[in-house]
Amino acid sequence: MRKIYLVPAVVGLLTCIAAGPLAAQGAVPKQKAAPAPRAAAAGAPAAAGTPVAAGAPSAETPAADDKAKAIDGFRSAKFGMNETDVRAAMTKDFNAKPDAIKSQDNASELTHSLLYAAPDLLPNGGTAELSYVFGYKSKSLIQVGAVWSKGTDAAMTPEKLFSNANILRAHFMGEGFKPDSIAVNMPVAGGIVMFRGSDAKDRSVILLLQGTFENKENNQRVLTPTSLLLFYVADAKSPDIFKLPPGQF
Description:
This protein is mostly beta strands. It has one domain (52-233). It is 11% helix and 30% strand. It has 2 helices and 11 strands. It has helices at 83-94, 158-173; strands at 52-53, 73-74, 77-78, 102-106, 111-118, 128-134, 141-149, 183-188, 191-198, 204-215, 220-233. The strands form 2 sheets. Strands 1, 4, 5, 6, 7, 8, 9, 10 and 11 form a 9-stranded antiparallel sheet that branches. The chain has a two-stranded antiparallel sheet with strand order 2-3. The radius of gyration is 18 Å and the shape is globular.
């Protein structure tokens, strides 16, 4: 079982963008290298087979005022819910049986998580592992994540990961996030931020394609994708995790 961690930031975007609680990934088998999408103007589809240019910038896109997005959780699970209510939401959304929902604690951040393997969370996208993270102090839902990888589905391929990433990015591009919060196709350490956007309350969605980069001809960087991570984060800047009080050490 992989560990769920709250990491402080995804760096290198338009501004210093805090990513909030992301999930640390375990090692997965080496897969055939697949070219990563080029950093593109917002709304432009990224096709597998297009390399990432070194140092390529992120892009912004305007959002329609009448389609303003509010991120309040994922499906029936809403930020601020307690564990009992989230379990009920998982049962409602996925017909999840009690013994299929696993619990996990994070010893360093003192958070608690519920994990569930969801087949075809994205239609024809393979099995994803969902994680529902409860805060250290509040004991309420602060993040929902989904991960697709060889670890969640043995039949997962680099092409499927790219397909899932492109479908989700295209969906989020039309969701009405704050224009100045949006970044797409941004190379970062260990992968590509396919999409990042926030609502008016700075609650965020982050879509990260993870893998390893290799330098090819003409200084093109090619990504071997190993996992796709999607996160809905209640407070990316100040997540509810344990921190030592100032002055104790």
